[in-house]
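Anyone up for a design puzzle?
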């Protein structure tokens, strides 16, 4: 592999040069595709007049940790990113794609420089989506749970290591940004459950009045969280019972974020597939060639 490349990007780059079609589909090795996936995806690409179509696959979850932690992908994505704006604004900051299924028109792929333009990016799917918008092309992200299935990880250790390699890069290696999101999610997702327990203890153990405890406010917040998680679980055909582990799952996600920062800044670099990717430029932001000034 040439210097400066991430393994996946280099592999995709080589494949794009070997391919001869007008459409290029990039997908991961851990995905399973229905027989209708290609036809339906191409039809959706044509119908929406998109230049890049990306699908959210169905998550296959078996172990307890998979069921508890992996749905946080949907929770964090759909509660922080306004999806109507992903489709209806040209702002590159409001763009995303899922590397498990990215269908390009070759003309658009080549116009943005393909994977060579993001050759050192560990979250190349997001930067490709932003580049599509930045160059004036059309992006569409759709629900593909009936077409594609994936089991990304099989244990807590795999989840921990897998997301540690890309969580900090998602925030362009910005300590301020990732710290804000960690604190925000801790306060909004874990603290309400703790306050509810404290309020219940105060109410029954000390005989406090309900109006003087944290219970009403905390319960309302917990109810909102459970409602959002339940809606997402039903939408993506996920189990409901693991929602009760939401505070633990969020604590694990925050721990993964801290570990991602530790790897990048204090342990020689991010780790993936037996390789270490150091921050060779001494920067705490994504390399400048991924973005135009002001983005």
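Challenge accepted. My sequence:
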């Amino acid at each position: 592999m040439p210097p400066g490349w991430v393994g996946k990007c280099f592999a995709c780059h080589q494949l794009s040069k070997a391919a001869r079609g007008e459409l290029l589909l990039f997908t991961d090795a851990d995905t399973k595709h229905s027989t209708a996936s290609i036809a339906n995806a191409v039809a959706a690409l044509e119908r929406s007049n998109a230049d890049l179509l990306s699908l959210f696959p169905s998550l296959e979850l078996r172990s307890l940790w998979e069921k508890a932690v992996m749905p946080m992908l949907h929770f964090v994505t759909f509660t922080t990113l306004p999806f109507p704006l992903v489709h209806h604004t040209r702002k590159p900051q409001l763009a995303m794609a899922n590397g498990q299924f990215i269908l390009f028109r070759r003309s658009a792929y080549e116009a943005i420089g393909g994977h060579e333009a993001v050759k050192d990016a560990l979250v190349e799917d997001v930067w490709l989506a932003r580049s599509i918008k930045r160059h004036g092309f059309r992006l569409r992200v759709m629900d593909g749970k009936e077409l594609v299935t994936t089991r990304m990880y099989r244990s807590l250790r795999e989840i921990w290591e897998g997301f540690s390699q890309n969580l900090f890069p998602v925030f362009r290696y910005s300590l301020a940004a990732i710290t804000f999101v960690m604190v925000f999610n801790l306060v909004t997702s874990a603290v309400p459950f703790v306050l509810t327990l404290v309020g219940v203890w105060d109410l029954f153990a000390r005989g406090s009045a309900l109006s003087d405890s944290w219970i009403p406010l905390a319960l309302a917040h917990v109810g909102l969280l459970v409602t959002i998680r339940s809606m997402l679980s039903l939408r993506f055909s996920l189990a409901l019972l693991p929602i009760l582990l939401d505070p633990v799952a969020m604590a694990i996600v925050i721990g993964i974020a801290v570990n991602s920062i530790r790897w990048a800044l204090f342990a020689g670099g991010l780790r993936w597939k037996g390789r270490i990717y150091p921050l060779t430029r001494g920067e705490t932001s994504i390399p400048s060639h991924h973005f135009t000034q002001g983005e």
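A detail worth pointing out: The radius of gyration is 21 Å.
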